[in-house]
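Example record

One chain of 347 residues, shown exactly as stored in the release files.
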Amino acid sequence: MWREAAAKSESEEESKPETKTSKMKKKSSSKPASMFQTGGDKDKDKDKDKDKKTKKAKSNGFWLQTMIIMVNVSKITSLIPLKEERAPSPPIEFDNLEEFVLQPAQQGVTVKCKVTRDKRGMDRGLYPTYYLHLDNEKKVFLLAGRKRKKSTTSNYLISIDPTDLSRGGENFIGKLRSNLMGTKFTVFDNALHPDRALPDMSNARQELAAIIYETNVLGMKGPRRMIVIIPGMNKDGERVPIRPRSENDGLLIRQQNRNMENLIELRNKTPVWNEETASHVLNFNGRVTQASIKNFQIVHNKDQDYIVMQFGRVADDAFTLDYRYPLCAVQAFAIALSSFDGKIACE
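Predicted structure tokens for this chain:
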């Protein structure tokens, strides 16, 4: 039916011996680092024409590895690709879990993870627990998250212990907090509130990300639209610390006022509308196998082919989450958690 050749997976590319071609690829892969660097030389738009040609060429192998995003599933089940074994995460080792989940992914490496949702938690599944593991044979645990019960807005605690999700526990690593409408979220680390921090703010909490779900005029008939704001990176590849003294200086307000110094703005990749299936589609390279409104990819507008993060359903309560530099595990997990929250104003 759809018989065009499939795009090659990342794992196939990584497993090839280093040839002249692969060396050239490695050289070009250093480009993403400059996209996220702030405070230095400004990025240049040299590759716009090249990107357009690349997108056109990639469309040849689009369908076999494509995932339907928002569809009437009963009409197009036959077009969903056959389930294939997901390419596992490359070998990743670390000695300190807390340090690893807060460090940006190593450049050139895609960290492939799996999110599972356990609805057996509090109040008949209203407050499920979410777990993040490396998607490999060992299924190494990374993070757990759960919405706090007594909170006026959606407020998720993130922990490095699967059984300890208490605010005061030593395993608390960060949190995700929404506005009243559930359309804007802020991700914090586990340091002190500004009111309790030192005058120089050296021990104050950092804002690691902000997620904005834009109003969707098509409602359930159109895909979600997301903006993700993250701190930029310095020339050493380290995250620029953002420690606001108040909410009036946080990532959301800075983005609203277009004060983007030391910040990076990312967006979800716009799905392509396909007339024959009457659906929006994206290429997940075999990592997503079920249709869902929650499926998305996050990109920088300067390079739509560099997927900073992708997230999608593989079972009723299982999802793949893959992230790359400059994101860390806490940022990526929190972005995924925000997608589970109901958004009345957006859909």
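Notes: The longest helix spans residues 329-340.
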